[in-house]
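In this supplementary section we document a worked example of the pipeline. Step one takes a protein sequence of length 523 as its only input; no multiple sequence alignment statistics are reported here. Step two produces a three-dimensional model, which step three serialises into structure tokens for compact storage. The input and output of this example are shown verbatim.
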Amino acid sequence: MSPPDSEVILEARGIVRRYPGTVALKDVTYRVYRNQVNVLIGENGAGKSTMMRILAGVETQDEGELFLDGSTIRLRSPRDAASHGISIVHQELSVLSNLSLAENIFAGREPVKKGIFLDRATEERRSADALRRLRKPMDVRTLAGFISLGCRQVVEVARTLDQGARILILDEPTSALSNTEADSLFQVIAELKRSGVTIIYISHRLNELLHLGDQFTVLRSGKVVGEAPREAVSRQWIIESMSGRDRTSSVLQPHDRSFSKVMIELKRVCLPAICGEQDVQAAITDVSFRLGGGEILGIYGLLGAGRTELMECLAGKRRVVDGEILISGTPVVIGSINDAERHGIFLVPEDRQRDGLFPELSIRENITLGVRRRPLINLKEETLRAKQIAKELNIAVSDFELPVAALSGGNQQKVLIARCLLRSPVILLLDEPTRGVDVGAKAEIYAILRRLAEGGLSIVFTSSEIEETQALADRALVLCQGYIAAELARGEMTDQALFSAASPLVTGSSPYVSGVVSGVARA
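The serialised model returned by step three reads:
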């Protein structure tokens, strides 16, 4: 049973948020309970980030109202939200390495004296006070570039506390932290709660949620589908609420296809971690698998599992430090993107805006980029090739000379697939192939990939969505903290099997984290 309404500090009532081609939030009523850890759960695309951006003032809702302590508020900017005591610590930290801790805590709101001079003494005193409040005293004159990732996250939290935060949103706070740093953050959260700060906590890691959380809310497809206090919540409840199906629900029947020819094989491949902290595990550890001709292999895992690192390894963006890669039985070295492409391996990246598309170029140029073999552009030939592949992939284009940014998210994703196909791939890699596209475009992309596989193209895709893995993969590998935790045939890809294998059971070794593990066992 949830606390009475008098304990609701923040409420979003009847929230609707629309984007071109999709409705991200559909009449959502979301309650945040005072002085508690309010867990918000949902698969990718469920609407969690949209809801948090609205509460943090980054976006405004199209319909609905926000209430703080029972009174209506309107948040038009993050500054508005901060003035009401609502702050967010994003997954991507904004700490600047070349500034001191104090300068980071006060960036953009530096105290002054006599109206013109920076008041460094006040800045450093208040920064030290905020860090002591979190029981993480540090020299506030230290450059942020010299402290660990976990300490940088504490600096972000200290910034919000100095701003007078009453409600703190933590978005995937442990996704890039080491075991020790995650444990330290949990202690900070406990201290915040004791001091009267209300927490909204978003994570895919069930062990953290089940121990830290007091109130649980589940979003699915832009709607609230579950709300319960901790004593009524279990792993099964979370999985069933997220997926909308009983954990024993069957998935699609296995294909009657066989994949005898091995196109690529990885043997005990290891990649170094990006972060140089001693306690951070390798990004990929001891990964081995085979990919058959015409097979669609799904790599399922939660945020930080190592999915993207594995794809970058296959695509030549990251160099293997140990292990072996064989193509058609022959050992190869893939030390660069050019090496990968010479072997017929092409990647559709997760972030198409940052890593794939050239927004200032036309649709035609984005499709044919990298295909040209002559120094001079043959506009007629390029346009013809672009039109042919666009027709095959059902890319809705009125004018191929329009900028690619004019297309919908789904059509932009098809442009990247088209670019790869024009270069005659042997193995196609897709990192989160339907990220940021609507339901209709998802179905079209699935159909395209199935058709390509039936034509003999080998495909590897990553996904953090259970339904996508079930709908598309002939076989699935589950990554968890850089390891393959499970290999599942099509008929074995139940919600329970995928999510349980992907969920790490231990995040540290201290007595605090031992409590997390025992809490999971009880659940």
